[in-house]
Design goal:
Helix 5 (about 115-125) links the parallel strand 3 (about 100-105) and strand 4 (about 125). The protein has helices at about 1-25, 30-35, 40-60, 90-95, 115-125, 130-145, 175-180, 195-200, 230-245, and strands at about 65-70, 80-85, 100-105, 125, 150-155, 185-190, 210-215. The protein has about 250 residues and is an alpha/beta fold.
């Protein structure tokens, strides 16, 4: 009987999450439509996403974000933001981690989510991982946004690990090569509680604090493409260490 009530709570909790995601989007729909009509207006769109939408969802779910910063992000500077990917709440926590406007590079499939997907495909850089031409287009789009002074966010695992016991999957090269090409620092962020609080497993979820650790930046100045493998391994080791310590 207890298991039944837990399952009912988790089902309702998951539905509540989707409602929290949708409500601000519906309320601000006309404004968001305007702000996603031009790349010049993206910083204003980002401000709403970070300060209204992310807070509305996180606190509405009774998730209490706590960001530990081992190095501070400098206002007006571009970065490559990366993090471990285990939860739908990763998006909101990444928004909380950086005041500097950044653009997500995310999988095309998320654009199919009702309401959320409409603005997701207008504001983010979408990638079809099965298509080589799509990956090339993503690279060019990311270059353009960096040239506009924005930052880029990529979850380098390339998705959520299929094996639920995997702490951290292997990283792909793209984020690190792009960071080297533009000579921007790599900001590795470890999300310590997102999987426990709200994993992709449907019957899961619990209230409580959500911790993220912004780790010391990896500099790319003076490096060439050959250094991408070393940067990738170092970043993964840094995040993995934090996850194991947690």
């Amino acid at each position: 009987m207890i298991v039944f009530f837990v399952r009912v709570f988790q089902l309702l909790y998951r539905i509540w999450f989707y409602l929290l995601v949708a409500i601000p989007i519906i309320l601000f729909f006309p404004l968001l439509l305007i702000l996603t009509s031009s790349e010049r207006l993206y910083p204003q769109f980002f401000w709403i996403a970070r300060n209204i939408w992310a807070n509305f969802v996180l606190y509405g779910m009774l998730f209490f974000p706590k960001i530990e910063r081992q190095q501070e992000i400098v206002k007006g500077k571009s970065y490559m933001l990366i993090g471990n990917h285990t939860s739908m709440a990763d998006i909101m926590m990444m928004l909380k981690a950086s005041k500097n406007p950044f653009v997500f590079v995310g999988k095309k499939e998320l654009s199919k989510i009702p309401i959320f997907g409409f603005f997701y495909k207008r504001a983010c850089i979408l990638v079809d991982r099965s298509s080589a031409s799509s990956r090339t287009a993503v690279y060019k789009s990311a270059q353009r946004r960096l040239q506009q002074g924005l930052s880029i966010c990529i979850f380098p695992e390339g998705g959520v690990p299929d094996d639920t016991n995997t702490v951290l999957d292997e990283f792909k090269d793209g984020a690190f090569r792009l960071a080297i090409e533009h000579q921007i620092p790599i900001v590795s962020i470890a999300f310590l509680d997102n999987k426990k609080r709200f994993s992709y497993e449907f019957f899961s979820g619990s209230i409580g604090k959500m911790r993220a650790v912004v780790l010391p930046f990896l500099e790319t100045k003076g490096l060439d493409a050959k250094a991408s493998t070393k940067l990738k391994e170092t970043s993964r080791e840094m995040i993995l260490k934090e996850l194991k310590n947690a």
